[in-house]
TrEMBL record:
Species this protein is from: Paenibacillus xylanexedens
Protein name: BIG2 domain-containing protein
Residues annotated as signal peptide: 1-28
SMART domains given in the database record: BID_2
Domain of life: Bacteria
Residue stretches making up the BIG2 domain: 32-113, 118-198, 202-282, 286-366
Pfam family membership, one: Big_2
InterPro entries, per database record: Big_2, Invasin/intimin_cell_adhesion
UniProt keyword list: Signal
Amino acid sequence: MNRIKMALRGTLALIMALTLLVPSLALAATGDVKSIEITNSSPQKMSVSETAALQVMATVEGFDNKQDVTEGVTWSTSNAAVATMVKGKVKAVAAGEATIFAEVDGSKAQLIVQVQEKIKSIKASPKSYSFVKGSESTLPKVSITRANGKEEDVTSEIVWSVSTSSAVLENGKIKGVTPGRVLLQGKYGTTIVKVPVAVTDEITKVEVTPATMQLNIKKSKALKVIGTYANGKTVNLSKQIIWTSSNTNVAIVKNGAVKTLTEGQATLTGTYQNQTIKAEVTVVPLLKKLITGQKKLVLSPQGSTTLSVMAQYDTGKTTVVTNSAVWSSTKPGVATVTNGKIVAVGKGKTSITAKWGNKKVTIPVTVK
């Protein structure tokens, strides 16, 4: 009896081996296929133009394990306008739904294929990560935009992987293991989104330069941020700091540079790991020129007059700066000046100059 069973099993093994060479004929001849199933039997979600290989496994009489009979399958589709089958691969043709049928020696299986518009773009939020070894972050949210403009949240359907062992994926999170650069890759069907990850050592000190600054309206200035590790080594963190502004109407930080918007003051606060830094910025209008009410003066000896000086800015604003300006005379023996008051001393010619900020104005004076 045992010999008969062994002989039968040997015969079945030979039949299956022949099936790989002539699948449809061999299976039809033996009649030993009890049932088949398409391994990815849950509804297949695809986008237009995508293809996916299907596998069919069979329960065969006399075999403990299921056998791969994919190459012996006769395929058909309920809607070739939506999805077609070519050499075991389903191709998405147009948006809609179709049922793919598989048949082997009278046994049948089917798969529902749901085809959507082609994916135009895919994006992850955040776009990148930077964290200390040993810490972890939740995996990004991912959305796609289809050719028809429709946007979808596909976060729950993304299959994630990492490029190196510097980071690992655990329970929906990415964790830094050792310092290094890692590429976090998310796959949605055949569409891929890549998120760069930087795993770093712990920073013990962060410094920003300049810490205080005065800028004109609609100007920019790069902030240099240096971080120091526990071992004393330093690293440039200028583009990695997350900045907030106490007054976003006055100044903000973009790509590591201060951008000024309107006149005023703002405190910029930067964070990296557990470190906090601050930079103070004062935004002032640009001084264009100094203006006086006189272009030239003629005085008699011992005569006097007072000039006023105004500062004019690029905003159109003017301010009287007579008392704060620095006054001088090229020939004090002809005329002297104090806070805009000119006193004639002796006959001759001189020039009276008022300087304020980085501008100055000069008035010729004649005493006769």
